[in-house]
Specification:
By secondary structure, the chain is mostly helical. About 55% of the residues lie in helices and about 5% in strands. It has nine helices and three strands; from the N terminus they run H-H-H-H-H-H-H-E-H-H-E-E.
Length: about 230
């Protein structure tokens, strides 16, 4: 029932008398190319189906050679590839054919358009206005001045200025704790005027704790935090 390359492929497979998954694709391809002398008589439909079947065989062979983590199902061994998958492939093949026709038509239409890179002919050059006719030195100076003028300063009034640094907070905490003994965090920030000062001083305290220079203790949740300067850190 098959003709052309599809018939040739079927005959080559039947000659080997083996499972389709174990078909030696290289040997069949070589023998098929040997029969390709009459390829001029094949239609595009026959050649396309040949490629589709070859790709299906190649996928089956790769799937058989690759290791599987699960045991094959009985329906896979008896039924072969899913008919739904074959139908989906036929739909994809039909879509590719339609797109190929559209691409060919678009390329043929686009080939008729040519760009024109030549300027106006000399006999019509006097009809075009001179773009530099109204350009004066004053206009050039004004344009250059507007381009080279520095931009206006950006308004930074909405940005919170930096009033305290981490280095300054580290020095203040070290000076307060250097004498030894336990100090409450409330007393450590008693001289802070703004909330940002309290936050930065607390961060400085965490830096000292990370370096092992102070010991922190808190008897209960949200209770007083006591800071003790480590003797070996002096």
């Amino acid at each position: 029932m098959f003709t052309g390359p599809f018939r040739a492929l079927a005959e080559l497979i039947l000659e080997h008398r083996m499972d389709v998954c174990d078909v030696p694709l290289a040997r069949i391809t070589e023998r098929f190319l040997a029969r390709a002398r009459d390829a001029e008589t094949w239609s595009l439909e026959e050649a396309t189906w040949f490629l589709a079947v070859c790709s299906a065989f190649l996928e089956l062979k790769v799937g058989r050679l690759m290791p599987r983590h699960t045991e094959p199902l009985e329906e896979d061994l008896l039924g072969g590839p899913s008919p739904d998958l074959a139908f989906a492939r036929s739909l994809e093949l039909a879509a590719f054919r339609r797109v190929a026709v559209d691409l060919v038509r678009t390329m043929e239409e686009a080939a008729a358009y040519l760009t024109r890179a030549a300027g106006p002919p000399p006999e019509l050059a006097h009809l075009y206005p001179d773009p530099m006719e109204k350009v004066t030195p004053d206009l050039l100076a004004s344009t250059a001045g507007s381009l080279l003028r520095p931009p206006p300063p950006v308004d930074m009034s909405h940005v919170q200025p930096i009033r305290v640094t981490m280095a300054q907070a580290l020095r203040e905490v070290t000076d307060r704790l250097g004498g030894g003994g336990a100090v409450r965090f409330r007393d450590l920030v008693a001289d802070c005027e703004e909330r940002i000062h309290v936050v930065v001083r607390f961060l400085a305290l965490l830096e000292l704790y990370r370096d092992g220079k102070v010991e922190l203790s808190q008897a209960r949740t949200f209770g007083e935090i006591e800071i003790t300067w480590q003797e070996e850190a002096r």
